[in-house]
Amino acid sequence: MKTISRRALTLYLIILLFMAGFVLLFFNLVSNSNVWAMNRADRHLYSEGVLATAGDILDADGNILVTTTDGKRTYSDNKTLRMATLHTVGDSAGYIASGVQTSFKDELTGYTLVDGVYNLKRYGKGNDITLTLNSAVCETAYKALGNKKGTVAVMNYKTGELICIVSTPTYDVLNKPADILTDTTGKYEGVYMNRFFSGLYTPGSTFKVITAACALENIPDINERTFECKGKVQIGEGYVICNGTHGKISFEKALNCSCNSAFAQIADELGAEKLAATAQRIGFNAPLSNISGKIKCSSSKINLSDAKSLDIGWAGIGQYTTLINPCHMLTVVSAIANGGTAQSPYIVSKITTPEGKISFTASKTEIGEYFRADVAGRLSNLLRSNVENYYGDNYFPKMEFCGKTGTAEISDSPDVRPNTLFVGYSRLDSLPFAIIVVVEDSSSGIKSAVPVASKVMKTVKSEYGS
Ligand SMILES: [Zn+2]
Question: Which end of the chain is least crowded, N or C, by CB within 10 Å?
Fold first, then answer.
């Protein structure tokens, strides 16, 4: 009897060990199969550590941005286009982590958990990915930035389609500079980063749009108020300095001429709690959902928890510790253009299988209401007034353009020049596009960022406008 029970126990133990081993094997298979299948030693997918065989990446019009020819990744013949789309398309070696070639490598190689890379071996290619990008607009944006570091992006504010994303510095993927890692002049600073998705910038006066929104929500008679600007204003223990001496001005005029004295007073009156509440409701301190389900965005940041009155004054004009991510800021401006409702930005419009079947078609996804419709409408009128009465409609002819510039001081040193920004959009139903421009180390929003936006929007109009 004793012998039998001991044998039974041994048997149970063996079964238990076998099952534990099986569970471990299954877990390993599921969690590591992707790595095994994508192992760079696999000659079908990679050649000398570089992605070799994969599906095509196309722009919105079906032009090929990258394909595979004779087991090698080959890029567009157009050098300007290669430079302009580098950060979105990505490189074959995976240096640009947010590039489509890296973030969508499972789709491009046709990898699935069940079949591994069977489809790739059978068809010689994976899935093709069609992007929402318009090549002509990307080329214009790249050329307009010139040799400046920064970013330009354009989004359809009704759908969330990103038709242009450019990040500089960039390089030609076919002729990668030899000094890219050894350079000490700083010309390649952050070259592998897509500044649009991953960058964080001091917003400067573009933040006045958010302070204005908070004022419209919380100060009922804000439009009837007047503000006094003597070139600076005392807030709490110190002074906020203005860019000019604006005298007695209305709320609208204060936004037109970007008066720091008026907006610091408004922020002080609103207080930290209300200003932070508006910012958090429109997505500060939380990342946007991954772009097309894959690409991570940095979170815009605001923290007024320890802010004194003077700090809140500076925060109201975008010069405290607040940082904005360009993709998030474009989403905020797009929400104003879209009557208050924010759409999720995306870059993949469809995925086509090796057999030619469409396996994925993007559709617009609402994030939700960033602004009440009446607040969005009043903000829109203020932003329209900025362009019409202050920057000049000649930058954006026949586009009924709305916008706000920003000049963000990033250092107390006079040797460090500011970053300049512009956010804006066309109010025309036939041209539902919003733009963000960031030009690092430049002069002023109106002199640096607005001319870039002007060139890009003229191309957008010729490509899409009626
Ligand atoms: Zn002023």
Answer: N
